[in-house]
Amino acid sequence: MEKRRAFLENTLFFGLVLALGLLGVHWLLPLLSPLLAGFFVAFVAARPARWLHRRWRLPQRGCQTALTALLYLGLGAAIWYFGARLVVSLGSIFSSLPGFYAQEIAPLLSRFQEWLLGFIEGFSPGAPVYWEDFFALAGGSIDACLQKLSAWAMGAVTRLAAALPAVFLWCSVAVISGLFFAADYRGITRFFARCTPPRLAQVLYLVKDCVQRSALQMAKSYLILMAVTFAELAAGFWLLGIAHPVSMALLVAFVDLLPILGTGAVLVPWAAFLLLSGNTGLGLQMALLYAVISMVRSLLEPKVLGNQVGLHPLVALSSAYLGGAVLGFWGIFLGPLGAIVAQDLIAHGVIRLPGRVREARRRGRADREGRGEKPAKGG
């Protein structure tokens, strides 16, 4: 009965902690996000500032504040440059969708319709009449959807302009709080350390070290996989005679970083379009390139991630799926990171699994019996 009661108490405790954590993520995280972003930037600048202080005896507070300001300037310049180019590119793409459909997709669907109707007429002479109405309705629906998509994209510019004051306020709070955090980083962290119980502080330090180490390892793993994919794509596009092979390979390699999409989100529709448009040779070669890249990725990814992170591929897939289902897009990355932290906490004995506890008790009992000690009461 005591074991059952202890099990129920532990289950209720961890369930309550998990529920409070999810509520905090959904309610408090959006409110505190600019402050957390500022603290994260100050945290990133802390280690280089300590190195400069030890290396050249420069004041650590001034170094950290200057590095934080430089990080903000670099991030702002990158977001401004690439964001502006992305908005312009997406605007031109969405605005040209109806014309692209009318010039490229509609003739292709018309040829496919003629071939399919001729194929069906060989089996049932009266059936093509009904299929013609179906294809006409489907073509009108596709055209209407593209028109709505283009109008939505053009209206997104207006919505973005309306959201600029809130974005400016968020960025201002993040920048100012980051500079304040950097100016008194040691004092703020020591204050929170004094306010935290020793046992919890020890766990938080362990989690911080694990997250810092695991994030760097995951970034290194994905950069290695991205570099391999980029090299394969650049070589394949060059051999296939694709215009601007390096730029196209870099774009597809960036898409490959997203766990849900991958290279198939670009290469598979591209190959299908080439096959349906009559360019069978290039379409088959594009499909072969995707097959080679997928095979190399499936062989390298478990080994690279296993060597860098030490997480089982099934656990990584499950945690990415659950993280995405609970937290959305960012949960795809936070889920595996949380699994790595949990694995590290289990290894350090902070989280004790029932099987590990029973095994530790059996080992302790065997050690006591080996030393000739009497077993403890109730053990």
From TrEMBL:
Subcellular location: Membrane
Alphabetical UniProt keywords: Membrane, Transmembrane, Transmembrane helix
Matching Pfam families: AI-2E_transport (PF01594)
GO biological process: transmembrane transport
Primary localization: membrane
Membrane-crossing segments per the record: 12-29, 35-53, 65-83, 160-182, 222-243, 249-275, 282-300, 320-342
GO cellular component, one term: membrane
Recorded topology in the membrane: Multi-pass membrane protein
Family: Belongs to the autoinducer-2 exporter (AI-2E) (TC 2.A.86) family.
Protein's recorded name: AI-2E family transporter
Organism: Bittarella massiliensis
